[in-house]
Design a protein that fits this description.
The complex is a heterodimer of chains A (306) and B (503).
Chain A (H helix, E strand, L loop, with lengths): L2 H30 L7 H19 L2 H25 L4 H20 L24 H5 L4 H19 L1 H11 L1 H6 L4 H27 L11 H11 L4 H23 L6 H21 L19
Helix pairs in contact in A: 1-6, 1-9, 1-10, 1-11, 2-3, 2-4, 2-9, 2-10, 3-4, 3-9, 6-7, 6-11, 7-9, 10-11, 10-12, 11-12
Chain B lengths: L7 E10 L2 E11 L4 E5 L6 H8 L7 E6 L2 E3 L4 H6 L2 E4 L11 H6 L10 H14 L15 H14 L4 E5 L7 H16 L3 E6 L2 H7 L2 E6 L2 E7 L6 H9 L17 E8 L7 E6 L3 E5 L6 H8 L10 E3 L2 E2 H6 L7 E4 L3 H5 L6 H9 L4 E2 L2 E2 L1 H14 L16 H14 L4 E5 L7 H14 L4 E5 L3 H7 L2 E6 L2 E7 L3 H5 L1 H5 L12
Parallel strand pairs in B: 3-8, 3-9, 6-7, 7-8, 13-20, 13-21, 16-19, 19-20
Antiparallel strand pairs in B: 1-2, 1-4, 4-5, 9-10, 11-12, 11-14, 14-15, 17-18, 21-22
Helix pairs in contact in B: 12-13, 12-14, 14-15
Classes of the chains: A mainly alpha (306), B alpha/beta (503).
């Protein structure tokens, strides 16, 4: 492949990696508090619809984005009620959220299929976009991509350098120790669930407000599940999530391009590519257990003390 | 040094769990600049008492006074705020975080954390109390002694004035233990009050100012350490000798040897030799942690002996456990009746079948109806309440659950019974039932009884063996008054191993 073809491909990788990046960061945030939320897909698609509708009826994509985040939090709050109030099984609750979210969004969105809403358009950053190669790849996108650049370092700072981040990590590692230290573990898990849901909602909004400006059924197309796998690939570190997201974005973009180029390969095989990569990545990262930062209490409910 | 008001005064504290009374009218003073040792066997109520002080449990009756003012400790946060800190036996540390992160966890302050400054604070605080620790090290990489230091620093950073140590030396090397004692001395010299829970008598003698002894939930003795002449006297006070049980022990004719231990050694046990015959109860006494656990686990097949040194019913250990019959063989009545003897979430029939299923099978099928009939007879015979076979194990009180375990094990017509703390936590009536059952069972079996309660051992046993530091110090008839009088000394390791231990 020539260089001229490679740069647009890499730019497209960043673009299609962005919604996955948002969702992965959201899931990392949730899992750091010790809650396993398999409902990423559900929270994303609910966010995507909320963002689309608000933007369509108010004409403001920014309001739409905000609504998408809040809708994501609202969706994951169901997970919070089940797991934090009733000590329900986190795996089952997360799966239910995925099914519920997809069903709800597709049903409510039926009248709007194929319609468009005002969204975010590419905005070349002055100076930065003129850097050769890198400018084309990273700084010739819409504002939501630029926003996604800021979140991983900020999240890293939050975990490593702030009191709340320390408490959140402790709750995910050893809730009993955190309780003994006087931390309200349930509130921190709520923070993890709702904060994570907000980012998942933003990931959905990227699909309906920036990637396309349209609403279609099954808009998220399994990206939430890729995010769940990427959390493991990223070893629960926000910065590593960036590489993973763009790798997957790259494979998705490549797959589209190969289809468009009229290759002999059946399109269904090409569509499988990102998911084959998911399996491959999971196998690879389970080899390197040592450097993983998996929260020790991930998926373990906090039993109420009386 | 002591002021008029003690730092903490416990007054008339009582606490029951169902029908089991863990603490009965306990009153204690924790004084400034003093180390109070709390001594007692497992199950004597030490942990319950300290959990009440740490705000984890609420007493049923009684009050707690902090420097003369009544306080209600209804949460751990409240206890911490009152300056009461607990160094748990199982550390409550986040392994993946650093020393400094663990110490500052849950403290109040600004949004941003200044690690460099915080690490300096940790180092300084540690130096004040004679500890050396790398504040940037991950807790997972630390030794047990260092982890304990982190726990202590956590409390000191929170300005705790009363520190409770729950068997702090159990996980330490002797050297680490000495460092801990130095740190404790530094703490009391700075006006802290310390509660030291232990059943290592020498340590208690060496470090404490006052000693309170708990037995069956009550404080039976409080004494200043300087008034205690020796560890033997302490052991005597701890196990007690008052006769609180009336059981008739009629000698039974001794028959064949059912258990023969010949020179058993492992990382803790040294040269254990004894024989057990059908018709006798051999009571093994000693302070907990002196090798009883290893011995029981080896005899019951949970731990493999290094050499072929155990014969059970005439067969070697390996042969016996490779094809163990469900009946006419070995029954184990473990101390942990909720964890090891029963499944909490199963009903009584399934729990009955846990060890007797061999008698209720036909090819691949389980004869559950037959088992149910049999179990219902046993429930009646042993007066187990509630007499409902569909009840789950967790719904039974400690005494009834233990009776259910005994009923099940006796149904197997065992010829060797290993009973570990069979009446721990039970009230006197339930304990008497169990004593009588054991005495009756010995007509058909040899019984190895391990207990921390000397009066129980003396009442039931035909022979007594005393364990100390992995050795069987001595074996003798329970009618041998001279030897019986010396049991406290033997338990404290003050008597040379006698040649009669080889029997």
């Amino acid at each position: 492949m020539t260089f001229e073809l490679l740069i647009p491909l890499l730019a497209a990788a960043v673009q299609s990696g962005t919604p996955i990046l948002y969702a992965t960061l959201g899931e990392i945030f949730t899992e750091k508090s010790g809650v396993l939320n398999l409902g990423v897909e559900g929270a994303m698609i609910v966010g995507a619809l909320a963002g689309f509708l608000v933007s369509k009826f108010t004409g403001s994509p920014v309001l739409g984005l905000l609504a998408a985040g809040l809708a994501g939090s609202l969706a994951t709050s169901i997970h919070g009620v089940v797991c934090l109030w009733f000590q329900g099984n986190q795996v089952v609750s997360g799966l239910a959220l995925t099914i519920l979210g997809a069903g709800l969004a597709n049903y409510l969105g039926t009248p709007y299929v194929g319609l468009s809403a005002p969204g975010f358009s590419p905005l070349a950053l002055p100076l930065l976009s003129e850097i050769p190669v890198l400018g084309q790849i990273f700084f010739n996108h819409d504002p939501l991509v630029y926003l996604s650049y800021c979140i991983p370092p900020v999240m890293w700072l939050f975990f490593a350098k702030t009191r709340f981040g320390l408490n959140l990590r402790a709750v995910g590692e050893h809730p009993a120790a955190a309780t003994a230290a006087g931390i309200n573990v349930v509130s921190y898990r709520w923070l993890g669930i709702l904060g994570g849901g907000f980012f998942m909602g933003l990931g959905g909004a990227y699909l309906s407000l920036a990637y396309t400006h349209l609403w279609t059924t099954n808009l998220t197309g399994g990206r939430g599940w890729i995010a769940v796998a990427l959390v493991i690939f990223a070893f629960w570190r926000p910065i590593r999530a960036v590489y993973g997201a763009y790798l997957f974005g790259g494979v998705m973009a490549l797959q589209l391009r190969l289809q468009a180029s009229g290759t002999q390969l059946p399109s269904s095989l090409l569509l499988m590519l990102p998911y084959i990569l998911t399996v491959f990545v999971l196998v690879l990262s389970s080899w390197k257990k040592g450097s993983s930062e998996e929260p020790a209490a991930l998926g373990v409910n906090i039993e109420p003390v009386d | 040094m002591s002021t008029a008001e003690p730092l903490i005064r416990l007054s008339g504290i009582s606490k029951s769990f169902g029908s089991v009374c863990a603490n009965r009218d306990v009153s204690l003073d924790i004084e400034e600049g003093k180390i109070l040792a709390l001594l007692g066997e497992n199950g004597a109520g030490k942990s319950t008492l300290m959990s009440i002080l740490a705000g984890q449990l609420q007493p049923d009756a009684g009050s707690i006074f902090l420097r003369g003012e009544k306080v209600v400790l209804d949460s751990t946060e409240k206890a911490i705020a009152c300056g009461i800190g607990m160094v748990y036996q199982h550390f409550k540390l986040v392994r993946e975080l650093t020393v400094t992160e663990n110490i500052f966890l849950g403290t109040k302050g600004g949004f941003w954390l200044n690690w460099a400054k915080m690490q300096d604070e940790v180092t300084q605080l540690a130096e004040q109390y004679g500890m050396r620790i790398d504040p940037a090290a991950k807790v997972a990489d630390l030794s047990m002694g260092e982890r304990q230091q982190v726990e202590i620093l956590k409390l000191l950073y929170r300005q705790s004035t009363v520190l409770i140590f729950d068997e702090p030396t159990a996980v330490l090397t002797p050297r680490e233990a000495e460092n801990l004692f130095l740190t404790m001395k530094k703490m009391i010299s700075k006006g802290k009050g310390i509660v030291f829970i232990s059943h290592k008598l020498e340590e208690v003698m060496a470090i404490s100012d006052n000693i309170a002894i708990l037995r069956r939930g009550s404080v039976v003795d409080t004494v200043a350490t300087r008034d205690v002449a020796s560890t033997a006297e302490l052991a005597g006070r701890m196990v007690g000798r008052e006769v609180l049980l009336e059981v008739d022990r009629v000698p039974v004719e001794l028959r064949q040897v059912v258990l023969k231990v010949d020179n058993l050694n492992d990382e803790l046990l040294k040269n254990i030799n004894f024989e057990l015959r059908q018709g006798e109860i051999f009571g093994l006494v000693g302070v907990a942690g002196n090798g009883q656990k290893n011995l029981i686990e080896t005899v019951c097949g949970l731990r493999k002996p290094k050499t072929d040194c155990i014969k059970i019913l005439g067969a070697s250990w390996k042969k016996f456990f490779s094809k163990m019959r469900w009946d006419n063989a070995l029954s184990y009545i473990p101390e942990d009746r909720q964890g090891l003897a029963t499944c909490q979430g199963l009903d009584l029939v399934d729990n009955f079948l846990l060890t007797t299923r061999g008698g209720f099978t036909q090819g691949p099928w389980l004869l559950r109806e037959e088992a149910r009939n049999k179990a219902s007879h046993l429930v009646e015979e042993f007066d187990i309440r509630p007499p409902n076979l569909d009840a789950f194990a967790w719904q039974l009180s400690g005494g009834n659950l233990q009776k259910m375990v005994l009923a099940r094990e006796f149904y197997r017509r065992p010829r060797l019974i290993v009973a570990e703390q069979p009446t721990q936590g039970l009230d006197i009536a339930a304990a008497e039932d169990i004593w009588n059952l054991l005495l009756k069972a010995r007509e058909a079996a040899g019984i190895l009884l391990v207990t921390g309660d000397l009066s129980e051992a003396l009442a039931l046993s035909d022979r007594i063996g005393v364990m100390f530091n992995g050795r069987l110090v001595d074996c003798f008839s329970s009618d041998d008054e001279a030897k019986v009088a010396k049991i406290p000394q033997m338990m404290a390791g003050l008597v040379e191993e006698s040649s009669s231990s080889r029997r």
